[in-house]
Amino acid sequence: MHLRGSPFDFLQWSQKTNDTSWSYQNLLKYFKKYENYEGIWRDGTKTKSKLFKIGLDKRNKMKFKISTCLGKVHGFEGEVNIEIPDFTGLGSKFVDGAQELGYKQTDLNGWYSEGFDYVTSPIQRGYRDATYNAFLKDIRNRRTLVIRKYAHVNKVC
């Protein structure tokens, strides 16, 4: 299963840490960089994604407004192939039923993740594409790379 998380959660992290680099908008370029997206939202024409514009009101309560965002949210040249599995079980019935009840089918990894859709997964040639296969397998024997299990990292240079 491949779900980035809600843009709202990233906003809260950026506010709690006083570090805007944790916002979804700032991290989106990294999400796009590792993705080779092959899902139904590839061309952005299924529906328009939604964008949260969130802030604090005078009483420090969260407020948000939804507006249309035409920007793309997926990458197409990254190491991790993201797609809908060949077998989704009752997935189509689930999505169709939600639409019949008035819910929108939406890109769950987009700006606005409330809604229903098929869950995408990291899949390569029919198998789950693990992080190891996508990023480490081909470079693990480099002399300049040290891989340690259970190590605590303080900084990546």
How many domains, as an integer? Answer: 1
Q: Outline the low-pLDDT stretches.
A: 44-71
Count of discrete alpha- or pi-helical segments spanning 4 or more residues:
4
The helix/strand order is HHEEEEHEEH
Strand fraction equals: 15-25%
Major sheet, described briefly?
Answer: 4 strands, mixed
Helix amount: 10-25%
Radius of gyration, CA atoms, in whole angstroms: 18 Å
Q: In what order do the strands lie side by side in the largest sheet?
A: 1-4-5-6
What best-fitting shape do the alpha-carbon axes yield? globular
The end-to-end distance, rounded to whole angstroms, is 30 Å
Structural class assignment: alpha+beta
Beta strand count: 6
Could you tell me the mean pLDDT?
Answer: 79
Explain how this protein is built:
The protein has 4 helices and 6 strands. It has 157 residues and is of the alpha+beta class. A 4-stranded mixed sheet has the order 1-4-5-6.
Provide a brief overview of the structure:
The chain is α+β, with helices and mostly antiparallel strands and 157 residues long. Helix content is 24%, strand content 18%.
